[in-house]
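For this section, I looked closely at a protein sequence along with its fold in token form, which I now present.
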Amino acid sequence: MKIVSSEEMQAIDRATSERFGVPSLTLMENAGTAAANFVISQYPAAQRVVVFCGKGNNGGDGFVAARRLHEQGRKVQVILLAESKDLRGDAAAMYAKLPLSATAVHSIDDLKSQRLQASLKGDLYLDAILGTGFKPPVRGLYAEVIVLMNGSKLPVVAVDIPSGADADAMAPQTGTIARADAIVTFTAPRPAHVFSLLTNGPTVVARIGSPTEAIISTLKLNVITAPDIAMMAAPRPAESNKGNYGHVLVIGGSLGKAGAAAMAGISVLRVGAGLATVATPKSVLATVAGFHPEVMTEPLPETDAGTISGRALNKIFELSEHKTVLAIGPGISRNPQTSGVVRKLVGEAQTPVVLDADGLNAFEGCANELNGKGRTLVITPHPGEMARLAGCTIADVQKDRPGTARRFACDHALIVVLKGHRTLIAHPDGEVWVNTTGNPGMSTGGTGDILTGMVAGMVAQHPKSAFTAVAAAVYLHGFAGDVMREKEGEHSMIATDLLTGLPEAFLRTRKAQENSVCW
């Protein structure tokens, strides 16, 4: 799903009406109805709803939501932060349709007066004061009402965006911004919906009538949604066998780090690949083999330090024959001899390669050797590894994560999975996809190895749709973490818990509805 700027969103609305014949009043009606439906479905106990409305189109959405909630039997109080005579266009038209009286407020003193205190008593606040066309800072009455809402203990649902937020921001924001327990926005998300941490609850993107052809953006940013990757989670044909779903060779492991390669190997299978083989130093092979019987193993010559030796190169090339994907790096170590093996493998392999962990660190200072032109090459760095590859600081990476990932993907003709909060997947053509699944409970050793195996296993099943396969793996990886947070909580989660949550993540992805998306 495309991420659009606030200016582009306005153009989309105009095009929807002018080119595609959908009246703007219909868009507003659908938007307000979507907000009301969310309140009804997610807050069934909220029988008294206070709707704060500004005088612009966001207020118009609020008027529609108030009418719809009233029709469903909710007790609704509309607080209009303007005079009704100041309303214009669609907002005025929707105000005229209100089947209930609204209370016009001119100052915060009016709102705090004893006369209006009863009006503010409710079970939920609906924030329809300012929409995504607003540029902060917010001042005057609107700012004072935002402070009032923020001081309340009632749940707040934002219509389009929390009032006072800059929709185009790509980082957490400060200033006077309404808190939100949920956000219902429309057509396509703006950058702040994805990057600004505007709510700890769900963000819903509702379809309100704009055709796909009208949704145009130059940002080259997208958010991964379940419908985008649903084909990767679809039921399989009845006539299937393991040969249909690829064979991944995991190259990794070392003395003390055998578990990383083992976790990557089993993750290959858990995400659906047909076969997984882990090639690892012979001294740790028993540890890897004992991890799970479904994962095959191959011993490799090793250095005195228990890492993969340069003498292993020919055997690895032999093992690579007839494999669908190579996953290189989990637990492989930074031994200079082993790093040389990694660079040789990545440089010469024509089989799709997924490169992670110390496999990436093998290219520190020689990132020019990473070139995916004419083949599939996926790298999965965390910010520290990305900084070493890009020759910059971690702070530089974090300051412009989309730009860093995009530049490296374009310059090296490969797919970059830049891990972290809002993991990014950058395509060599410059498009960047943002993942919204996952949670802080996944901040534990081994989750990256699970991701490496999942990416390799998904690419093995869908080699002709490698980028979508990578996006699907990242999405499902985070989704599995979200499932396990529900069961285990954030503090007790460990990496292999993700494998337990993965079946449920697949199931929920298949069931996702296309009329709206949520994260």
Remarks:
- The chain has two domains: 6-219, 246-510.
- The chain has a mean pLDDT of 96.
- The longest helix spans residues 466-488.
- Residues 246-510 form a domain with the UDP-N-acetylmuramoyl-L-alanine:D-glutamate ligase fold (CATH 3.40.1190.20).
